[in-house]
Amino acid sequence: MATCVTITTGKESNNDGTLTVTMNGVVTANGYYGKGAVVVDTCFYSVDVLKTITVSNPSSNAWTGEIKITQGKMQTSINCDGCKGSPYYRNIVVDGNSDSSGQSPTQCYNGQSCSITWSVEGIV
Q1: Percent of the chain with pLDDT over 70
Q2: Residue 116 has pLDDT above 60, yes or no
Q3: What is the C-alpha to C-alpha distance for residues 30 and 38, in angstroms, rounded to an integer?
Q4: CATH of the domain at 57
């Protein structure tokens, strides 16, 4: 069963910024991403199972966007361990400091590495 990940920068004011994404301990994206940019669009199959995703931002240029994860073409429920604010719903702001709370109710702040976890919706 494939696990697919798509991470996209938002299109609102100030959503563009710096983001580092690590999957299974390997940096898969690192840099500045403009509004609407696709940061990650990849699938992992049973041979190369996706186990971990972390997001962080080493700069004060906040990044805001959406994380979508599917397993076997089923949408998953996403949680952010280490995030502040509200539970993940549709978007997240990742910032090297903490001055971007207006961009998303879910925040990964102060350059910390936040873990993204997921489960198939409706399955415990």
Answers
A1: 96
A2: yes
A3: 12
A4: 2.60.60
